[in-house]
Amino acid sequence: FIIAFLFPVVAFAQQKMLTVEDAVLKQRTTLGPARLAGLAWVPQSNKFTYLAKKDGKDCVVMQDAQTLSRDTVLTVASYNSFLSKATIDASASERLGAITWINETSFRFNVKQSIYKADIKTGNVALICMLPDNAEHINYEPKTGKVAYVVDNNVWVSSLLSYQENKATGVADDKTKGDRITNNGGYGLQNGTSVHRNEFGIDGGLFWSPNGTRLAYYEMNEALVTDYPIYELENAPATQRKIKYPMAGNESHVVSIYVRDVVKGRTIKLQTGLPLDQYLTNVSWGPGEEKIYVAVVNRAQNEMKLNEYDAVTGAFVKTLFTETHAKYVEPEHLVVFCKNNPKQFIWMSERDGYNQLYLYNNSGRLERQLTNGKFDVTLLLGFNAAGNVAYYVAASEDGLDRVGYSV
Question: Taking Cα atoms as reference points, which of 166, 156, 107, 115 lies closest to residue 136?
Answer without folding.
Answer: 156
